[in-house]
Amino acid sequence: MLKIDIHTHILPEHIPDWKKRFGYGGFITLNHHKHGCAKMMRDDGHYFREIESNCWSAKTRLQECEKAGVSVQVLSTVPVMFSYWAKPEHGLEISRVLNDGIVAIVDEHPKQFIGLGTVPMQDARLAVKELERCKEIGLDGIQIGSNVNQENIGEPEFFEVFAAAADLRMSVFVHPWEMMGEKDMQKYWLPWLVGMPAETSRAICSLIFSGVLERLPHLKIAFAHGGGSFPATLGRIEHGFHVRPDLVAVENAVNPRKYLDRIYFDSLVHEPAMFQFLVDLVGADKIALGTDYPFPLGELEPGRLIESLGFDEVTRARLLHGTALDWLGLNIDEFD
């Protein structure tokens, strides 16, 4: 059965020396310290993570996809590359390099890869400009972070980016990054285990309560990691909406539960009971296979969770590829 993985990350094999070009630091570099491996480093020498060739090599990815039974990967940059803290014009230049790299891979393997771009969210005007270019060069959407320099993405200054995505029929994938409270919970990898789920819920709630989703009913937006903690805490969120509307419903008086049929989620929740809960809550038509490939916190056997729960063939097909195609506005014939 066709498998489309909507949540995978990729980098250029060689990243420009942004510090040298822009005159200030904080950017990610790659130290290819041995064959097939590289260290992601801040340009001040701070180690970020180790990656392998599957994070930049289309050839390696295709081999691993074939082995795992994945038909199509949706490519997006590693979130640390968003660089929203950089000067806007530099954020735009970084985005263009990353996007051109993804397009080159998609153009070479159009039946195996779909591309999502990145845009400089620190400047909405430039973000829209690059979003329009993403459409022109053949990308099918964009990936954005769950916050922009700790501002909620539902804030008014970002609305035109979402409006442009809706108008251009460009899908949006929201990925957690720069987790709130990260500096206060460094031990035990808590930013990734606790902060990321909360950060995704923050993004969803900000788009609901600010009225962005109400104003843009045709926006195709998906959230990583099964929506983080949002599905499990929706009851609390809804209860707060009812009992303290003076604090919650200040910009949108619509029950947050209404938006469950407006948003998409990937399948990356790891826990079978939680995945069944998510299917029961939002329906298979709002959930798409997503693995966070090639990183270890992702699903290491793509689709195993979906296939382990005994869904009928129609539901399984929806989860493994149907919802992805719907979210992206694509036709299955393009990948047969």
Helix content: 40-55%
Total strands: 13
CATH fold call: TIM Barrel
Structural class: alpha/beta
Order of helices and strands: EHEEEHEHEHEEEHEHHEHHEHEHH
Overall mean confidence score, pLDDT: 97
What count of structural domains?
A: 1
Could you tell me the strand content as a percent range? 15-25%
Uncertain runs are none
CATH superfamily: Metal-dependent hydrolases
Q: What is the radius of gyration computed over CA atoms, rounded to a whole number of angstroms?
A: 19 Å
Layout of secondary structure:
Layout lengths: L3 E7 L7 H5 L5 E7 L2 E6 L4 E6 L5 H11 L3 E6 L10 H21 L4 E5 L6 H14 L3 E5 L1 E2 L2 E2 L6 H10 L2 E5 L14 H20 L2 H4 L5 E3 L6 H14 L1 H4 L14 E4 L5 H11 L4 E2 L15 H5 L4 H16 L8
Parallel strand pairs: 1-5, 5-6, 6-7, 7-10, 10-11, 11-12, 12-13
Antiparallel strand pairs: 2-3, 3-4, 8-9
Helix pairs in contact: 3-4, 4-5
